[in-house]
Fold these 2 entries.
Entry 1:
Amino acid sequence: MTTQPSSDLVTFPNPRPVRDFTIRIDIPEFTCLCPVTGQPDFAKLVLEYVPDELCVELKSLKLYMWTFRERGAFHEAVTNEILDHIVAATSPKFMRLRAEFNVRGGIYTTVIAEHRQEGWQAPELVALP
């Protein structure tokens, strides 16, 4: 196999750093292992962020997500770990990671973790008629 998992998150310059805009990335096939049973856990991840100077490159993000396939991790821990790594790579103004794990034993788990750059305020929502 030529493509391998990689923990290297590649970035590129924000093409419009003077404007706040939101990037939303849906990751519908995230997998990791239950640290108790070793069985696979499946989740849909939704990453939303307002970039500052850097954006995350999508292929590197895909390869990064692949690094969790053989790792045991609690839902809460893996969600926060992923957020921490992407924040460290991009230093965004705002970032939210929503991890919606598939049912296990009749229970669904959703974990939402956020990062907010100190002093950053979300722009006021404009409602159009």
Entry 2:
Amino acid sequence: MNITIISVGKLKEKYLKPGINEYLKRLSSYAKVEIVELPDEKAPENLSETEMTIVKQKEGERILAKISPEAHVIALAIEGKQFSSEELATKLDKLATYGKSKIVFVIGGSLGLSQEVMSRANESLSFSKMTFPHQLMRLMLVEQVYRAFRINRGEPYHK
């Protein structure tokens, strides 16, 4: 399985990098995982609704340019469906079973994802009703994908 994580914004927090790299290393025996980091659109603090839409559209264009037509896209969005770790494992297993070997997870920038990206997504996933920094979501996502592979292989993993 080929998993791509497209993430808007540079990972600035040095303390997150070792954790992400550790899970990427662990995942390498289960799947090919690549993180594609895209620049976020520079914008002032107080934006109008129109300006926010424009920023999300520009970021969305960069995201969509990195998604192949055959990829199964899972957008991370607060309004998405919440899964348990076991349910995510089952979802990834079913995708692999039905020939979906290219999975793309999309983490938007600080304003979220454009309507065009959400329309391209096959489904959306929410980790919580709470808001998390998009940089932290990378670590949380790679850990949960790793956990899913362990669950699907029947290998032990702490609960």
